[in-house]
Design a protein that fits this description.
Structural class: mainly beta
Largest sheet: 7 strands, mixed
Distance between the termini: 40 Å
Radius of gyration: 13 Å
Order of helices and strands: EEEEEEEEEEE
Number of strands: 11
Shape: globular
């Protein structure tokens, strides 16, 4: 049974940093592209970042470029999202996703909530 479990969310003030983690189990982690998505209240889910199998290639949404960094540790079956310079508009539930094909996400985590106060 594949599980993706996000952690690290919380309530912070604008300008603060958070690091989200997504621990994967039940799959061969190194064979999966990983992605981060978020969904704010009343809005559709949106892409945040993705990282390839080796971790050497990443992509980001324009809204987070330069502030967020994703990385992975294949030995720990974990992907991370370092979020710096948080803004109130970053407030959302954050989800990680996994897929063997880049851009095609088969498995999803349950999400972790990030709230940024102004």
């Amino acid at each position: 049974q594949v599980q993706l479990v996000e952690s690290g969310g919380g309530l912070v003030q604008a300008g603060a940093s958070l690091r989200l983690s997504c621990a994967a189990s039940g799959l061969t982690f190194s064979l999966y592209h990983m992605g981060w998505f978020r969904q704010a209240p009343g809005k559709e889910r949106e892409f945040v970042a993705r990282i390839n199998l080796s971790g050497l290639s990443t992509n980001y949404a324009d809204s987070v470029k330069g502030r967020f960094t994703t990385s992975r540790d294949n030995a720990k079956n974990t992907v991370y999202l370092q979020m710096n310079g948080l803004k109130p508009e970053d407030t959302a539930d954050y989800y990680c996703a996994a897929g063997v094909q880049a851009g095609v996400n088969r498995y999803w985590g349950q999400g972790t909530q990030v709230t940024v106060s102004s």
